[in-house]
Structures are given as structure tokens and as C-alpha cells.
Amino acid sequence: MAVRASDRVTLAVLPAPTYVRTYYLLQSSSLTAPAAPTTNPPAAPWTTTEPGYTAGDTNTLYTVQLVAYGSAAFEYGEVQKSSAYEAAKQAYNLATQAKDAAVTADGRLAVSSSAPTAADAVGKPNGAVWFRRDASNRFNGAWELVNGAWVARTIENAMIATLDAAKINTGYLDVANRVRANAISVQQLLVGSLTNMLEDPSFDIDVPTNAPLTTAWASIHANVTRVTAGARSGPGALRMKAGTAAYDGIRQKNAIHVEPGEEYRFGGWVRRESAASVTGAIEFSIMYGATDATTTTVTAVAASPAGLGETYVRVAGTWKVPAGVYFARPRLVMRADTGNTNTYLVDDAFFQRRMEGELIVDGVITTPKLDVAEIWGNEAWLNVLRAGLIETSMLSAGFGQNLDISANGAITLIAGQVSDQAAELSTQRSDIDGVTDQVSSLGGQVGEVRSSASAAAVAAAAAQAAAREAQDKADGLAAYVRITGEGLEVGSPGAATAVKITPSNMTFNVNGVPGAYLDAGQFIAPRFVGEEVDLANVKIQKQGTRTVVKAI
Known about the structure:
The chain is built from three helices and 29 strands. By secondary structure, the protein is mainly beta. A seven-stranded antiparallel beta sheet has the order 20-21-22-23-24-25-26, covered by helices on one side. Strands 9, 12, 13, 15, 16 and 18 form a six-stranded antiparallel beta sheet that branches.
């Protein structure tokens, strides 16, 4: 089936635009954007005059275009913000910010060689920063102006991403808890207190240059001033000029409280200021007493070395507080030296109490020399032990079982009063009795029994007499045992007699000369004195003025 459709189209013919006109509306930026007008011309506050931008104005300028056709027809475009007006506002805001930054930057940052004072805050904005630098142009202090007052500031570690440890070459590294490192290379490792008890130890407080120190130190004599040139650290150093006056120098104004028996390290860094030869010395000494007013006794603890050069060297000594002393004043003096006109610099002095610390090592301490007062431990393995005195309550059962002294000339072991040597000497007596038994069997020639028996009797009597004398003196002897390359020597200090045992024989020495001796099963003595001798199957004994030999 065929479908037929129909529609109507209306065509309007508009004449050419008669005119195009732009209208402007300025209103607060907080108001809603206006709608397009519906009349021609639009009602106020729309206007054909474009308002100019007023500095600091925050309003918004809107624009709309009117297109008129003939005398009656017209239409409006979209309402838009004026881009020129918005650009002017943005430019003004940026200019204002730049101006504010410029104004506040003027006086906000200051760099000086001294700390800020209240007068330095005048004319500076809140938040101004003050940096202090030393004589080497290194920053060593920072302050911020807060409500008209300078507040010291420090740099927090969060601001330091990486720190080169090679840059830390002076002063102290203060760590509250611990330092973790694979290796630490130091000349000295101080385990204990690091608190410096001196006031103004680096001579930085007194600002006037080439003037006497007056704040923390008091001059003992003249020729002592504070200088800035040549300081080891910080802005100042102590300058001491030699003279003929005895002990020119300075001392701490305020006494330091100490306790008897405490130990302190006192020292500092010293150098010669000029290239002239040095004949004097800088002395670090302590003035002390029972009260603050009686610190008059003086003890020197350290002095600069001979041939002091123009490079700073560390000088330090230890002082132990005597009994009855409770106050101390460290002092620095120039020893009197006639004709010496040299000048010296001292910096970074320190007075530190030596306190007990603890060094915990889970591993091995490797060092060519360990200098300590006491060593406490469960075990010690040593290749070589050199000691002036070894005290012990006991030795293990196997101690000394094998002593190799082949490379030594002699070893002397000295005992004190021997209260329990009777057993040892009893053993010696048994040995001598054994000698007597051997003497008893010496009669090899029956035909010579009388003469041999007489000699044997003398030897046996001498052995028995020596044994009895040794036994009687056992409890009061002071004995020594000396191990030599030849053998073992036993004697008493100061005595003429001694017993020497070698692998081949045993001799009884008198004044170092062998007397009787036991050699290869034979007891040989130049002279033997005895009362009775058992020889082989006979007994030889004295009866009155006669010697009787009878069978056993």
C-alpha cells in the first residue's frame, strides 16, 4: 500500500545585521553570573562603557554582545567574563606578591661575625634570620626573629639527606645512644664522660680583639689576650706572649667543684704563632683547695713539647683530686724564660672528668699494645705474657707440666715464707736417704772394706746431717727455684749453699762451687762425716776412739 506524507517548513528572511554592540556589567565576584538580557537596550547595570581596572579590585567584569536586525529584531550572545579584566587582576596580585616578597626580603636575612642583639631586631620583619660566621667564613650559629626577640635555631637532621663524614674534622660528635659503623679509625677512644667543665674553652665569648679575657677567665699577669687570627675553631683563640715575669697566664674565674679521688683530664691545642725558635713552654696546671677561696695550691699536669711548631698539637695530662680538696681552677701559664719573646696560641681547651665506661666487644680486639690498669675476664689467650708481678689465688693442676726454657738464659722462681715446705724437704730427705743406701752398696772390694767403709760412713753421716738440718729449717725458709738452661737450682736467697739438678747429676754447691754430688749411681764427696754406716753385709760404727766393723 502506498503511503503519502506531508510537512510544513517556515522560512524567515532576516535582513543584514544593523549593528553589533557590547555591553558590560561589573559586580562582586561572590555573586552568581548574570543571565543574558532580554530587552534592547538591556536594563542597568548593563552599560556600553567598559570600566577600567582599579588596583586591588576583586570584582568580576561580565560582557555580552547584542546583534540587532532592522528596527525591531535582535539577539544576545552568551554572557562571558572579561579576559582582559581577569588578566589585569592576576597581574596585580602577582605584582603585589612580588612587592611583598621584596619588602620582607629587605632585612629578613643577615650575616655577621657576631650574635644578634636586641638592637639588631629594629626594622626587621618577624621571621628574619641571622647567621653568624667565624674567621674562616664558616657558619657557626643561626637565630630567628620571633615577636621581636632573637631565638637560637639549629638545623634538624631531616634537612640533611647525606653527610660526608670526612668533613667532620674538629670538635666532638655527640651521640646520645650509639654509633653504628663497620670500622672506626681513631687515635684515642675515650669511654666515659665527654663533658667539658670549662667555661668558654675556645675563647669565643669575649668579643674585643687583642683585649684581655674577662668573662670566664681571669688574667694572672699581663701578656694574655684574645685574638681571632689563627684560631683552631670558632672565632677566637688565646694569645700568650712570653716574658720574664713568672707564670704569665689566665685561670678560670669560677672554681669547679670536685671530689677527692676523682680524676680529670686537662689539656688543649697549642701552637707557635710565629716562626721564631721556641725556648719556653705553655703549662696546663690546676689551682686547688678545700674551699673556693683557698685554691692556692698548684700542680702542673702537662706542658707543650720542645720544638713546638706552627701547627696545633694536642697537649693533655691527668690530675687526681687529693684528699680534702673540693674546688679547682684550671689555669694556663707561660713559663718564665728570660729573653724569650715568642707568642703562642691556645685553643679548644678541655677539663673532663674521667668516669667509668664500658666497652662491649662481641668479637676480637686487635692491637699491638693494650695499656690498662686492670683486666677482668673469664679467659685470656696470650702468645707472650710480660708482667712485673702476677698475683693468683691458685693454679690449675696441669699448670707448668711442660715449660720450654731452651731459649732463655735463666728463670728464677722466688717464694716467700715457706710454711708448708716440710713435705717437699721431706722428699729431699728421702732422696738423700736413697743416696745413703747407694753409698751402702759401694763396697765392691772386700779387701778394701775398712778404707771404703770409712769413706762411706763419712758420706752417709754427711747426708743424714744435711737432711736433718734441712728438715729443722723447713718451716722458716725463704726458698727460690731457678730454672736455667742447664737444669734446676734450688736454694735460699742470700744463702751460700744450693742444690743443682741436671739431666746427668745432682750437685750440692757452696758459693757456686760444686761440693758433694751424685753422678751415675755414685755419691762422691771430698769429705764424709757420719756416726754409723750400713755397707753391704757389714755395719761400720764408732765406738769410743775406735771404728768397729761387724756383720749385719
